[in-house]
Amino acid sequence: MTTLLFLPSGVTGFRWMRIADQRIVAQGEGIPTADDGGDLNADHGVIAVAPAEAVTLHWAELPSRSAAQATAAARLLAAEASAAPLGELHVAVGDEGQGDRPIGVVGIEAMQGWLRMLAAAGVDPVAMLPAPMLLPRPDEGYVRAALAGDTVVRGTSTGFADEPGLTALVTGDTPPVAVEPAALEAALAAAVATWPLDLRQGMFARRRRFALDWALIRRLAVLSGLILAVTLAITLVRIAKYSFGADMIEAQTEQVARSGLPRGETVNDAGRQLGERLSRVRGPGLGFSTTTATIFAVVQATPGSEITALDFQPNGTVRLGVAVEREALATDLRSALERAGFAVQAGVFQAAAGRVSGEFTITAGRAGGSEGA
Q1: Which of 50, 98, 139, 274 has its CA 20 to 30 A from that of 245?
Q2: Measured CA distances, 337 to 61, 208, 369 (Å)
Q3: Which of 104, 91, 90, 92 is nearest to 57 (CA)?
Q4: What DSSP state is assigned to residue 283?
């Protein structure tokens, strides 16, 4: 339901008309009250209607991309058509969904006076329409209708108050046609729904009241709390999963380490004890297996040489007894051992029974390094 509140005109005061279900359901004089069937500021609120004689209407083709561009173009047209200075005029642009657009020109002082009058009555209208814009726009000629006691005329590109003598000068040989009551009600319903030309633009635009929707705020707070709770739960589950996984891996590692320790040994630190046992089994230095395997490979690769003795010392040193066919092979064997990464010290070699035999003392050295005999 929407209330049309007609502003005072001449000696006539406020008048109102209530529109509901596309028809006039009530009307009266003065400011309507709750006893008249509704709250002025509820739902759709009030649409103020400016007197036809106070607003000059024009129609023109204006830019549709930007409201600012359309208003600027309309102000230029108003400046050319009005005798009053442009600074004293308020220009508003509407839209009826056709090629040309309506332009309303009214004095700034008049707009300020109307809004002060309405505020004093406790009314903040959602829009302000010129009275002629409530009538249907004819395809040709002019139409006439009485609105809350005042008669208004509208043509295809004009709208004004019906005054004896003046109307005939404007309409000429085309007298206005009276609007049927049903057509008038339909036009009023369409006007309050679409606002073809709202004068409350620019400096007179209605200020939106900011109101907190506490129900929405509470719902948002609950949703935020739920999101935080779910996020925290996901994080805790992930931490617990990582912790359980780490504990499982640690337990499996300790179990594997225990399997490598001697039976019955007290386990304090399985990883450290397993490392110590590995060191004891492998031996010092490079370890027994690695050292002896490398020495045997070197001797095997040196033709005419053989191992006569091998003693792996507790400190990782190897005393290697060898026999070669000639003295030069002993030097070749030593060089090969040094290339294999050992430090080699040669003892005294003696010749007997056509063979040269002696002893090397081998320790772990720099890879690829060589030591002198």
Answers
A1: 274
A2: 104, 96, 10
A3: 104
A4: -
d(CA 15, CA 9): 10
Crossing angle, helix 214-259 and helix 270-282, to 10 degrees? Answer: 30
Q: What would the two tokens of residue 136 be?
A: 């249907």
End-to-end CA separation in angstroms for the chain: 117
Report the Cα 4 to chain-centroid distance in Å.
43
Q: Return the axis-axis angle of helices 327-339 and 288-300, rounded to nearest 10°.
A: 140
Residue 59 confidence (pLDDT) above 60: yes
Looking at the predicted structure, is the pLDDT value of residue 50 above 90? yes
d(Cα 257, Cα 78) in Å, to the nearest integer? 97
- The pLDDT value given to residue 260: 67
In single-letter form, the type of residue at position 107 comes to G
What residues contact 184, with CB distance under 8 A and at least 6 apart?
A: 135, 136, 145
2-204 and 283-364: same fold? no
Choose from 22-36, 59-73, 143-157 the range with maximum mean pLDDT. 143-157
What average pLDDT does range 264-279 have in this prediction? 68
Q: Which residue is listed with tokens 């089994």?
A: 281
Domain ranges of the chain: 2-204, 214-282, 283-364
Q: Is residue 176 classed exposed, middle or buried when 0-12, 13-18 and 19+ CB atoms within 10 A define those classes?
A: buried
DSSP codes joined into one string, 126-184:
SEEEEGGGGSPPPSSSEEEEEETTEEEEEESS-EEE--TTHHHHHHTT-PPEEPPHHHH
Go through 131-160 and write b for each residue having 16 or more CB atoms within 10 A of its CB, e for each that does not: bbbbbbbeeeebbbbebbebbbbbbeeebb
Beta strands in the chain (DSSP E): 2-6, 15-20, 23-29, 46-50, 56-60, 89-93, 101-107, 127-130, 142-147, 150-155, 159-161, 177-178, 305-312, 318-324, 342-346, 350-352, 355-364
C-alpha distances out from residue 216 to 38, 211, 223, Å: 27, 11, 10
Domain covering 2-204, topology: Nucleotidyltransferase; domain 5 (3.30.420)
Q: Which fold has domain 283-364?
A: Gyrase A; domain 2 (3.30.1360)
